[in-house]
Structures are given as C-alpha cells and as structure tokens.
Amino acid sequence: MSAGSGDTLTMDVPEDAGLRHWLSRFNPAAKLLAALILALGLVPSADPVTGGVVLAGTAALVPFSGTDRRTLLVLGLPFLLMGGSTLLVNLLYGDQGAEGALGAAVRVLAIALPGLLAAVSSDPTDLSDGLVQRLKVPERPAMGVLAALRLVPLLAHQWRTITLARRARGLAARGNPVRAVRLFFGRLFSLLVRSVRTGTLLATAMDARAFGTGPRSRARRSRWGRRDTLLLAAAPVLLLCAYGVSCSTGTLVLLWTGTA
C-alpha cells in the first residue's frame, strides 16, 4: 500500500508477489462476503472460545495481507478501544461475570478483524468494481466507498499539517495533560471541518460527472476465480470449527439462552 501524492491510496501487487501479498490476490467482493459470513455467524455466540477460534484463524492471515503490523495496529486502534470498553462495561455492569465480559470483547474483535483485513488488503478501485459488478451495489454508494478510501491518506496528511501549524504558533501541551487533551480535541475539530469541506467538494464533483445517474461503461472487469469461491467456503468452515471446539470443551454459550 502506498500513498503517492498524499491524496490517493493505491496497492500495487505484482503478479509474482510473494506470500506476503497472498490475501491481496482475492476478489474484494469475496473477502467482504467472507467477513460478513463470519460476522453474522458470531452473533449467536457469547463465549470467549468461539470468538477466540475465529479471531485466531483470522489473525493467522495478517502476515499475508501485505500490510505492515504498525499500519494495521493504527487502523485497528478504534476496534481495540471498542473491545476494551466492551470488556470493562460488561465486567462492571453485566450479569455474566468475567467470562461473559471476555466473550463479548473477543466477539467484537473477531467481527471487526475480518472486515479490516478485507479493506486493507484490497485496492480501492478493485473494491468498488467488486461492489458494483459482483455484489450489485448501486454505483453511488460504491463510488462513495472508493472516494472515502482514497481520502484516507489525505486526512492523515491534513492531521500532520494541523499539528505542525499549531506547533508553529506555540500551541503545545508542555507536559500538561489537561492542555494536551484540549489541544487534541481542537485538532480533531479542525480535521472534522476540513473533512466536511473536502467531502462537499468531492460530492459536487461526482454529481457534475453524473456518477450514479445511469448505466456506465467499465474500464476493468471484476474477475471471480476458483480461489474466491474457496475463500467464501472457508468462512462457514471456520465457524463450524469454532462452534465445534466450544461445544466439545463445554464452553459454548448462546446469546439468547445464556447456556450451552
């Protein structure tokens, strides 16, 4: 994955790419469908074993996503915070105890990681083509997804610019944690304003080019191969293995019953 001029997000995967880019060779539509199957299949489970098996199986694919661990950690930080907050809230106010709280947190991470891997291992244009051609998503939201992914590096660049501009004006925390929090939310508000302006300009430009108003020609075909079908079939197999392990160990807890 590379950011060229700061406003584009591209992924160049050569045909002879090694195992590090193995996951990038699949059709993005297949990866999204597999992630959706895993997410829906984990909804009934409330124990940590079922979600843990799916999480471990998905985490095993991280080295083959073509993304370095640092980038993946930064992108996954909101989900880590979500999992941690879920653990804390259920631990303090839930009626299932520590095991139920851990199961809820693991399930959140197990649902989030497949979708995150599908996004970071897919070229934005290929993802948009797959949404329109394979999943029959309307062009307007598909182009919105493409535009959002293309703008991710631009927002990161704008965040650095805002930080440097405020530092040049002498706005620094200087070891004061309260001031650091105030400055952080100030930068966050500035980024929100810039992103709204950028989004408005982009939406106007897309409307001017008549995106989503009628049939359009395709510059590239979204190809679906045997490996994509196998990936799609692997998702329910992983779910069956997860439920089988939790059932055999006697730890399976269903969400609507609270019992195995």
Automatic annotation (TrEMBL):
It is a multi-pass membrane protein. The chain crosses the membrane at residues 32-60, 72-93, 100-121, 141-159, 230-256. This is ABC transporter. Keywords: Membrane, Transmembrane, Transmembrane helix. InterPro entries: ABC/ECF_trnsptr_transmembrane. It comes from Nocardiopsis kunsanensis. It is found in: Membrane. One of its GO terms (cellular component) is plasma membrane. The keyword Secreted does not apply.
